[in-house]
Amino acid sequence: MTSAAKPADIEHVTAPTRDSPAHRSTAAATSVLVLPGVLWLAVFFLVPIGIMAVISLGSVDPTGHITLANPGLGNYGHALDPDFIPALLRSIYYATATTVFSLGIGYPVAYWISRYGGRHKVLLLILVMLPFWTSYLIRTYAWLVILGDNGVLNGTLLDAGVIDEPIPILNTDVSVIIGMTYGFLPYAILPLFVSIDRLDFSMVQAARDLYASGRGAFLHVTLPLTMPGIVAAALLTFIPALGDFVTPSVLGGAQTTTIAKLVQNIFAAGRDWPYGSAFGFLLMGVTLVGTLVALRSLRREVIGASA
Amino acid sequence: MTERNLPGMSFNEALEDKLAQANWSRREFLGRVAAFGAAAALTQLLIACGQAGGSPSAAAPSTAPTPAGSTTAEATLPAEPTAVPKPEDKLFVYNWDSYIGEDTVAKFQEKYNIEVTYDNFPDEATQIGKLQSDGKGGGYDVSYPASTWVPSFIQDGLVQKIDHSLIPNLKNLNAAWQDPDYDPGNAYSIPNFWWTTGYAWDPKDVPGELTSWAELWDPSRKNKMSMLDDLRECFAAGAFRLGLSPNTTDLGELDQILALLEEQKPLLRFYTATDQITDMVNQVVEMAHCWSGDWVQMTYDKPRFKYVIPSEGSIKGNDVMIITAGAEHPIAAHLWIDFNLDPEISAASTNYIGYMGPNDAALPLIDDYIKTDPRLNPPQEILNELIELKYLAPADLAQYTDRWNKLQA
Questions:
Q1: Quick check: A63 contacting B, CB < 8 Å?
Q2: Minimum-distance CB partner of B54 among A151, A253, A273
Q3: B268-271 and B115-121 as β-strands: parallel, antiparallel, unpaired?
C-alpha cells in the first residue's frame, strides 16, 4: 500500500488510506472508545465466567467449602441426569411460547408505530419503555392481583356471567407464559421497530406496482427485509426467557419448575457451588449452541431471500 | 383482639385499598417484594461476586476458625465491661419476613439513634447462602438462623463471640435456655423464638378435626394445597408418614420419601416459604404445610382457621440471634440483641407474629391465647415427642438436594 500510494499523492487528500495519519488517529480513537466496554466485559463477564469454570471442576469438602483437590468433570456428568430433562423441556417450552407471542404482538405494534406513529413516534417508543421505570419484580407481583382466583380477571369474568366459578390461571403454564410475554415484549418491540423503520417503503410500493397483493408484498418484501430485526428480537426474548427465574417463581406453581430454579436449588438449598456452576455452564452451552444454529440457518435464509 | 393483632389496620389506607382486591396488607406486599428481591439478587450475586468467599482460603478468616470469635470480640470490644462502648450509627439485620414486632425496628432506631437496615429473605437456603457467601456474614451484622446451624457457624468462624456484659437482658431467659446443647453457655448465639411444624386448614372447606400428615396427600384437595418450599421440611413430612427419622441419611429411605413426595406433587398448587399466609387468607389454597406462627398470623384475618401438629410426629425448632464475624457494627449488634430481649419488646413481637421464645420476663405480657395454646407454647410432654432437624454434612445434603430437584423437575 505504501508503494502504491506513492505515485498518487492526491489520494491522500481525497480519502485517507490505512497508513495515513488521519486513519491512524481514527483507529486510536476507536480503541480508546472501545476500551471501557472491553474492560467492563473482561472484569464483570469474563473473570466471573472463568472463576465459575474453575469452580465447576471442583467439589465440596466435608466442611462445606469448595475444594479443587480432585478436579474432574464429575459435576457435568451429574448435571446430565435424564431426570432433569422435564424441567429443561419446560423451560424451552416457556421460552419458545414467550418468543412467539412477543413477536406476534410486537411486530404489529412496531409496524404501527413506525408507519403511523408520525410525530408521536418518540413518545410511543417511550411508552413502550415506560414499564422499565418500575422494578420488574413489582410488575410481576401486580400480575398476581390480575390473575389470582379472586383477582381482576376472574372477577370481571364472574361479574359478566361468563364463568360460574373462578378458573385457576395463576400457578399454571398460562400465568407463567403471560408474565414472561409481558416482561419480554419491550425487548422484542425495540429491534423490530428499528428494522421496520429502516425499511425503504418504496420497495413495498414497487412490489404493489408490479401487481403484488398486499399480503404478497408483506410476505415477499417487508418480512424478508425486516428479518434481521425479527432475528434480533427473537434472540433478545428467547435467551433471557430460557434462564428466567423470577417469573416462574412468582407466577408459577408446583408443576412449573424451570431449569433456572433447579440451578438456584443447587446453589441455595444444596450449597453445592461446583455442581451449580457446572449445571449453569451446561445450560449456557445449550443456549449458545442453539443460538448459533438458529442464527446460521436464519442468516442463510435472510441472505437467500434478499439476494 | 387488640389493634396490633390486625396487621395493616394502622397503615396507609390508600395502599390498602389498592391491594384490597388481593386481600394483602401493605406489610405483606412489601415483605413479599423485599423477600423476593433478596432471592433474585442472591442468584446473581452467587454467580457474579461471591466465589472468593467459597474458596477454602478465603472462607477461613485471617484468624483461625475456633478462636476467631473470641479474638474478634476482644478486638472490637474493650476488655472493661463497666462502661458501654459508644455504638456505631448503623446496623444491618437479616431476618425472615413477618418475624418481628410491628414497630420493633422503629423503636430501636428511636431509642439508640442507630439507622437500621432491615432485610428479609424468602427461605432458609437463601439466608444461609448469603451469610456464607463471603465466609463472614455477607455484610450483615445480625441474623436469625435456626439453632441447628450454630455449631457449623462456630466451626467456620462465621459468627463472633457475644459479649454477655453488653446484654443485661440475658437474665430474662429461662434457666433451661442458658446452656443449650448447640451452643454451651450461649457463647455465640442468643435464643430467639421457637416453633413447631404442621399444617393449617380452612374448616369451611375441610370439616373435621384432622390429625394426620396423610391429609396433605388427599387427592380430593388437588390444586388446593401447598407445601413449604423447604427441602428439609418436605422430606421430614414424608419421613413422618413412613415412620422414618426426618434426619435420615439412608439412601433407600430417602428414595422411599421421594416416591411419596412425587405422589403428592401433582396435587399441590405450589411450594412456598413466603406466601403460605396470604394464600390461605385469600383462599387460594384450603390447606397449607406451615409453621405454627404462620397459622397465628392467618387467624388475624380468618379466626376460623385450624392448625395441627400431626400425630405421626413433627418438627420443633428454635432460632437464635447471632453476630457475624464480619460485623462492622458489633456494639450496635449487641444493643440490638439486648433490645430484643427486653420483656416489652419481646412480648410485642410475640403478640404480633405468634411465635414465642424462652423469655420468662416477657411471659406476663404475652397474650393468653398464645401462651395457653400447646401448639404455640408446647408443654414438655409434647416437646419430647417433637424432633429437631439436624445439620447435614455436605455429602448427605447433596443426596437430599438431588432428590428435591428430581421431585421439582
A1: yes
A2: A273
A3: unpaired
